[in-house]
Write a structure and sequence with these properties.
366 residues, 2 domains, six-stranded parallel beta sheet, elongated, ATP_synth_F0_jsu, FSH-like_dom
Length: 366
Amino acid sequence: MSWFGVAPFKKFPAPVLRPMAPFFAAGLVIAYGINAAQNSMMAGDEWKNDPRNKKAAIRFFTTKMGDNPAQQSAPALAPSASDSAPASASTSTTPLPTPSSTPKPGQQNRPQRPPKPAPPPKKELKILMLHGYTQSGPLFRAKTRALEKLMAKALAPLNLVPALIYPTAPNRLSARDIPGFEIKESEEGGDEGGEIDSWAWWRRDEASGEYRFLEEGMERLAEVIAEVEGGVDGVVGFSQGGSVAAVLASAMEEGRSVPEGEKWEWVRKVREANGGRGLKFAVVYSGFWAPPQELGWVYEPKVRTPTLHYLGSLDTVVEEGRSRGLVERCEEPVVVVHPGGHYVPVSKEWVMPLVGFVRKCVEAKL
C-alpha cells in the first residue's frame, strides 16, 4: 500500500485503468492541499472578524445583548490603549442587516392605517302589534312570529333591532260575542257561553253603530306606551287592530285638533306617553275606517302618518269597500293586495313589501 492510499500500479488488475492511476493520485494531492489551506485561513484572526463569517455575527449579537457568560463573569480590567483611543480610530464588526429589519421599498413613507372605529351601538325599533277582534296578544304573536325574523335581518344594516310589543285589549268577550260560535248546552241545563280568551278594543253597538268601550281600549295603549322606555316608533294592526292603528297614528300627529270633553282624554294620555312624538309609520292588515261621526276628526284632515295597507282579495270578513274607505282617508297610502283571505300573510314574498316600507320610513327619520 502506497502513501497515496491506493495500491501500487502493478496491482491494478485491469490494463485499461492503469493509465488513469497518475491522474487519480494527482487529484487526491490537490484536494488535500486545498483542505489544509482552508483550515489554516479559518484559524486566523482575519476570518474571525470577517462579515462573511456567520459565527462572528452571532458572537457579535450575543456580546451586544450581554448574553456572553464569559464577558459577564470576567473581572473588570484596566483600560488598554485601544480602549482609550477615539471612537473613529477603533475597529468594530457591523452586523449584517436581517430581512425582518430591512424595510421594503416604499414602506418607509407609507402612512399607517388608523384603527377601525367601533361599530355604533344597535338601537331598538319599537313597534306596537295590535291583534284583531276575538284574539289576544300572545295569539297574535304566534301568528306573526315570521315577521320579526325577516324584519330583524332587513334592519340589521341600519343597526336597528325590531322590538315587537303585543298588548292584549281590555274588553273581554264571551262566546256569544264571537260570530259563528255555537253555544252548546251543558248537562245541568245551562250553556257554555261564559268567558273565553277572546278580547276586543271596542264593542260596536248594533242599534246605534256607536263604538262602546273605545276609551278603555285607547287608554290601555297609553299605559303600554308609557311602560316602553323612549316610547314607540310605529304600529302594526290586524282587522279591528288595524282600524285602531290608524286611529292611534292620527291621534298622535302633531297639530291635529281634537274635540273637547272628558271622552277624548285618552288622546292627551297617548301623546304624553310617547313624549309628544308622532309615529313614524302605521301598517294595516285587513283594516277598515271607523264610521261613527264622533270620530270624524280622525280622518279630517287625512291621516298624515305614512301608512301601508294589506288587502286580501278573498277576504269575506271585512269588505273591500270598508278597507278602501280607510285607504282613501290617508294622505299617502301604499296598498298591497294579496291573493288570500282574512289573515296576515307571513311568507317572504308578502313580508318584503312590509320590510321595505318600514325601512324607508325609518331612514327618512334618521
